[in-house]
Write a structure and sequence with these properties.
The chain is built from 15 helices and no strands. By secondary structure, the protein is mostly helical. It is elongated and about 90 Å long.
Amino acid sequence: MHDLVPHMLQASPGGQAGSKRCRGEDALQDVLAARREALGMNHAETLQAAMDVVDYLTEHDKLDEAEDLLHKVVMARDATLGKDHAETMQARHALVQCLIAQNKYTSAEDILDGLVLTRRDRLGADHADTRASTLQLAEVLSLQGDPAEAARLQRGVLALDRRRLGADDPQTLVTESALAHYLAGQGALDQAVETHRRVLAARERVLGRDSADTWRSMGDLAECLRAQGWYEEEEAALRRLWVVYARVYGERGEETLLQAEKVALCLARQEDYARAVQVALDVLLKRQAVLGAGHAQTQRVAELFRVYSERVAAVSLKNDSEN
């Protein structure tokens, strides 16, 4: 059933895509209605048909409708299988995902609180489903402005990951990286920087310098250093990433030029406008060559170059007057 919908959409000619999409949804809803009438809402085949509809609605951003149907699926599975059954918990997990996608974090937290406790009691703290729900609860708490509680939960999962997988396992490092973000969110910047450094070193050692996760750690460390006001160290981290991007994407690649702009901004934060001008000019010339002088990205860099040039001139004038 899931594969049918994309096939129908691809097969539809020109302007018929919208009507085909509606008929695809209608077909799924018809199956659900027929099974509900013949078998009842609580029957396994009806619930599967409901989840098919949920999948379709989610794929097409009809999240409020998907949420309503998921509530019905959860209630039906509660009634037939019980709250502790694996399929019931899976339905609750799907509902949580739908709520998070709509920024309904309080409702998601309420469900996750119970889901974490149930999975921990039924499956154990080390189980993958328990781990997933705990990490999701930590994320929701952070999004609601409680990074301290998010960090507490994250530390618990990290300890389990280290014991089960090892400190340098890629999955463990993902958990530790998220912990660093929560620490920064609660203002524990020294701990956050230390954690980002440790994750970066491990990823370079395990995954190599050209891994996307390693690059992400470089960027995370730079942001945390900026938050600390450690601009010289931030510059060093940004330049490392600039070199990597230039090698991977080319000197004129979009990622490379965006990274170069970050270096220029960092230099400006240090009031080193002379070097900021040099970097901004390099980016400007490359953007003009790639995008043209009238492109919005080019014009934005041109404005940075103008501002930095004025700052250099002002500093020069001040020094001349003092001499």
